[in-house]
Amino acid sequence: MSLSTVLDVVLGMVFIYFLLSRLTSMAYETWVGYTNSRGKYLQDTIAKLLEGTAGDALIKDFYAKPAIASMTDPGHLPTDIAPALFTQVIVSGYIRTPSQARPNDASSFDLITPGANSAVLKHLAETSATVADFQAAVNLWYTQAMLRSTRRYSHKIQPIMFVIGLAATILFNADSIRMAESFWSQPTMATAAAMEAQKQSASLAIQATSATPSKTSDNSKQAATIAETLQSDKNLPIGWVHVSSPEPNPPIKGFESTTAVMMTFLGWLVTALAVSFGAPFWYDFLNKITSMRPGSSSQTASGSTT
User: Fold this and answer.
1) Which helix (H) or strand (E) holds 199?
2) What is the spatial distance between Cα 180 and Cα 23, in angstroms, rounded to a whole number?
3) What pLDDT sits at residue 243?
4) Which of 280, 220, 273 is nearest to 29 (CA)?
5) CA 305, CA 263: separation in Å to the nearest integer?
6) CB 21 within 8 Å of CB 201
7) Which residues, listed in sequence order, are joined to residue 242 by a DSSP beta bridge?
8) Buried (b) or exposed (e) across 43-60, using 16+ Cβ within 10 A?
9) In angstroms, rounded to a whole number, what is the distance separating the alpha carbons of residues 266 and 218?
10) CB–CB of 272/166 below 8 Å?
11) Which residues of the chain have pLDDT under 70?
12) CA atoms of 41 and 48, how far apart (whole Å)
């Protein structure tokens, strides 16, 4: 079998994983929007940075600052606070300088309550000669803390994404073993799926690599588009179909025997595990495989320059 066919098989599989990952991500974002779990997680993270707890006066005071309060909807905490904004709130609200009119020129300053509760802030203040130095140190400290927090959050939601992905996998009967066998035994189907992946990947990749949650209305539209593609595309070997049988109620394909049932469950688990990697992962993979496929736009452009 040629390299082109192998790439088509891989691209078809990756395309399905990407679609299911997007659907899973949007389902999760919808749940997060209702529960505000990401906002609460950020609040807990900031509470740890400032050495307080989510319910004490220190954190209430921080979230009451106008710059932060303007981002807070009734019952919903902000899900993202940029390093520049965090630094601005800390510097403007929790320090006292000899010259408030020209704080960047101040040669000395003091932390005031409640900012002084943080040992890290105290240390940064003690080792900073000017407010500008302190501002830069706070910005770097917060940026690094958010990077660590993002990694922890990704690990924390991995089991949740797996469960949602498994539900989507079963809903569309996306059995990885069956998918691979179908693409491998029917190269024309794999090629058609690969071409469809190239055609739709750009339009379906909206916000796939963005950390900013989509609006509910946008999620609904995208989810409907993806669900329609998964259900109606005849070149994607997924879905619930019956085997050809003279029996009045033929068994569902994949459930003809105990071995078939076990293989189907294994195929579901493989798909759910793949989906839990997330849409950004599969979107990047999709682009890489697409660029390697003969006749892709990148290869065409490369060939035209030689």
Assistant:
1) helix 187-204
2) 21
3) 46
4) 220
5) 48
6) no
7) 252
8) bebbbebbebeeeeebbe
9) 33
10) yes
11) 1, 54, 98-107, 113-116, 201-219, 241-256, 294-306
12) 11
What is the residue whose two structure tokens read 């770097």?
A: 140
Token pair recorded at residue 191: 């090629």
The ranges assigned to domains in the chain are 3-35+158-304, 37-151
Indicate the residue type of 56: D
Contact in structure between 104 and 132 (CB atoms under 8 Å): yes
Each residue's pLDDT tens digit, 173-223: 999 999 999 999 888 888 888 888 877 766 655 444 444 445 555 667 777
Residue 164 vs residues 49, 94, 167, 218, 260: alpha-carbon distances, Å: 31, 43, 5, 20, 24
CA 285 – CA 261 distance, rounded (Å): 30
Single-letter residue type at 133: D
Query: What pLDDT is recorded for position 165?
Result: 93
Report the C-alpha gap between 23 and 278 in whole angstroms.
10
- The count of other CB atoms within 10 Å of the CB of residue 117 is 16
pLDDT of residue 284: 87
Q: Which amino acid is at 182?
A: S
Q: CB-side exposure of 289: number of CA atoms within 13 Å? A: 25
Helix, strand, or coil here: 73?
A: strand
List, in sequence order, every beta strand (DSSP E) within the chain: 95-96, 110-111
Tokens 């409907």 correspond to 224
- CA–CA separation, 26 and 31 (whole Å): 9
DSSP state of 277: T
Tokens of 6: 């192998």
pLDDT in the model for residue 204: 56
Q: To 5 degrees, how large is the angle CA 210–CA 80–CA 144?
A: 90
pLDDT at 20: 93
The pLDDT value given to residue 239: 86
